[in-house]
Amino acid sequence: MGVDADLHAAGGRTGVDGPGIPHPAPAGDPVSVPGTGVPPGGDPGPGAAALCGLTADALPDGLVIADASGTVCCFNAAAVRITGIKAADALGKHLSDALPLEDIDGRRWWVCTDPFGGLGIRTRQPERNLLLAGREVLVTASYVRENGANTPVTHVVVGLRCTSARRRSERNHAELVATVAHELRSPLTSVKGFTATLLRKWERFTDEQKRLMLETVDADADRVTRLITELLDISRIDSGRLQLHRQVVDLREAVDRHVRAMVTAGHPADRFVVRAEPGLPQTWMDRDKLDQILGNLLENAVRHGAGTVTIEMTRIRLGADASDDPATGEAGEAGAGDEDGEEGTEITVSDEGPGIPDELLGRVFTRFWRGNRRGGTGLGLYIVKGLVEAHSGTIDVGRAASGGARFRFRLPAGMPDVLT
Question: Where is it localised (predicted)?
């Protein structure tokens, strides 16, 4: 039975050392850095370069260190935040008392793992989800044996992580699966229904009825294809594997083409106003990705906005002062006459609808954001932001002077692939 188990078998740590149990060091004594062999007050040597002069409080994860007696001698600020335990309450206590961790079955983790006993070749404990006073914490530990395998453990180094980020990721994953399942079910049900009906009763329908059903199947197939494309784009954006095939694009021609497509789809031509500054810089970017950006922003303005949709294109110098008031949507000077900064183009898409409440502006480009509306995947604007940033551009949202939503993105002129 190990030291920790012996202590618990005796009814807890009493401060009276049993046979073979080292006497705990006072809480205030300096302790050598585990794994470096640096003695208190000694020359740190080249091994201390990895610390760069920083303290344990600079670490983003929780760090708890116990010495050979099991006494906690380090409890950093992140550990305080994650556990809710004050450093003063943990320092000087035995590790099992300072961190009374349990697994999901209620077993005391330190008794089960026996860090100061057990196999002499153990060096670490893999990360596990444990409970600390009812709070879930991700815990990993390493056993420092300065003299090699089968020698006493000189320090136990415990790493702590909050589970909130992982839980949030799991919720996002579950929401993505649910959204995809819902969005796929409707068009696939329609496709299955119409094709089954046509196969069974082909002769009973007129050519016009057949054409109507086949057009519906075609539209639903496009919807499924669009959803799959969105999912692939998200995967590539999140993993950094988005590939760009840059070429010279005419931004004015691209905007005009999308406006014509909207008019062809049945929207009145006088609902769209395009203003383009003369002499826009030659822009190198992925033509398909530009179509996705413009298509999403225009569709968003038409579907969820109201009144006239205005598209403005201006020549700018990126990096110049272009501050604006998000409450009014009035932009500052774009710095066209400033010679500093890279040349680029600013494109804004605004409408005259109710706009987006100020408290929701920060959530517009997050996954699954739909505002107060139903329908859609809520992925379009998230993808737009990823595509703009993949071209080293920026995008923001605010309120237009007319009161509606105003999306503004800036793109550098860029370089051809062969030169980047």
Answer: Cell membrane
